[in-house]
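Quick one:
INPUT:
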């Protein structure tokens, strides 16, 4: 269990992560011999951690710290050095909070609406409002206004997305003659504004006009499930690692991805969906969160056997279909049932994949701000 891991191993893991990041950032400017020395130090520390030799781990951390220290030129300004040390301590503290307690997470899609909102683009014909309104929309509503026109006749070649500080996402629209930078993720530009490779624009033609509503920014409680099991009706976050039907559609270079859904079935439960109701072991569940989805009120439409206009889902694809959840697994459903890829499509979530519980919407300051239910 996570909370039984010795403190020295946790600290060593963080130091190892920092050393690897240092090497990645400085590799191009370090001497080859120094790169080799740091790589060797990292491997020696990793080996000591595997053997769980406390004194050897401490020794290897000191050795690696000495090597890295020699790789950084001495700072001439002592006060600047002190300020940087304070900043580093703050960063380490924030990293510790993220690693052990709360992790920020942005809702990417609309599968949990209206409980949580994902990133949505809204094209309009009208020009953006004045600067004051735009600033208010950005700070309070998480809404970015767009009004981009082609500088000349051009063709879109590619769209490249970049995220800074794990929060600010921009997209470079690369054309044959020009490059435009937009404060918005790539997906809504392509999906809602139809900015696609190969599309041609005349001089002065609108490329993207309207606004993009950012996905709800939430904190995920990474501690609670170390002490209690996930509960029916929880909004929970999990890794997609090992879920083959999801991984098959992902970019191999992306690594592990996280999804957020509502936990709608526990190990051993037999599920059935007869829209709008979900049945667990032959009965409608009593959990208020699940009943709210089935209520057909306040934007909720209940649970479905398929998408809005697509074929039935692989699991629970008809009112007569049932599914029994195997041991060590959970069944995940989106609250926006007609527009959600979830366990009805790709199967169960292994218990080992659970990352934490959706805890708090901290931005934007909408009606959804606060504790997640």
């Amino acid at each position: 269990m996570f909370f039984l891991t010795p403190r020295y191993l946790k600290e060593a893991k963080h130091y190892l992560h920092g050393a690897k990041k240092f090497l990645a950032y400085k590799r191009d400017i370090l001497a080859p011999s120094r790169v080799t020395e740091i790589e060797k130090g990292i491997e020696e520390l990793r080996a000591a951690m595997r053997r769980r030799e406390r004194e050897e781990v401490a020794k290897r951390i000191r050795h690696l710290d000495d090597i890295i220290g020699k790789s950084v030129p001495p700072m001439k300004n002592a006060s600047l050095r002190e300020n940087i040390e304070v900043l580093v301590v703050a960063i380490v503290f924030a990293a510790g909070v993220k690693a052990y307690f709360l992790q920020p997470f942005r809702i990417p899609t609309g599968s949990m609406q209206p409980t949580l909102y994902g990133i949505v683009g809204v094209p309009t014909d009208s020009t953006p409002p004045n600067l004051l309104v735009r600033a208010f929309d950005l700070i309070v509503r998480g809404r970015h206004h767009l009004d981009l026109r082609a500088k000349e006749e051009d063709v879109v070649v590619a769209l490249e997305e970049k995220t800074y500080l794990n929060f600010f996402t921009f997209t470079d629209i690369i054309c044959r003659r020009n490059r435009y930078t937009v404060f918005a993720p790539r997906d809504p530009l392509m999906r809602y504004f139809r900015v696609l490779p190969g599309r041609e624009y005349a001089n002065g033609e609108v490329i993207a006009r309207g606004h993009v509503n950012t996905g709800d920014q939430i904190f995920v409680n990474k501690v609670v499930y170390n002490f209690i099991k996930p509960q029916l009706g929880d909004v929970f976050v999990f890794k997609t690692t090992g879920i083959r039907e999801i991984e098959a559609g992902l970019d191999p270079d992306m690594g592990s991805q996280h999804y957020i859904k509502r936990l709608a079935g526990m190990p051993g439960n037999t599920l059935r969906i007869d829209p709008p109701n979900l049945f667990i072991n032959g009965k409608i569940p009593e959990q208020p969160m699940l009943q709210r989805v089935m209520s057909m009120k306040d934007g909720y439409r209940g649970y479905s056997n398929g998408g809005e206009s697509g074929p039935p889902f692989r699991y629970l694809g008809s009112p007569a279909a049932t599914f029994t959840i195997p041991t060590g697994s959970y069944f995940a459903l989106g609250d926006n049932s007609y527009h959600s890829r979830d366990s009805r499509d790709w199967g169960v979530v292994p218990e080992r994949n659970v990352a934490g519980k959706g805890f708090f919407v901290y931005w934007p300051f909408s009606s959804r701000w606060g504790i997640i239910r």
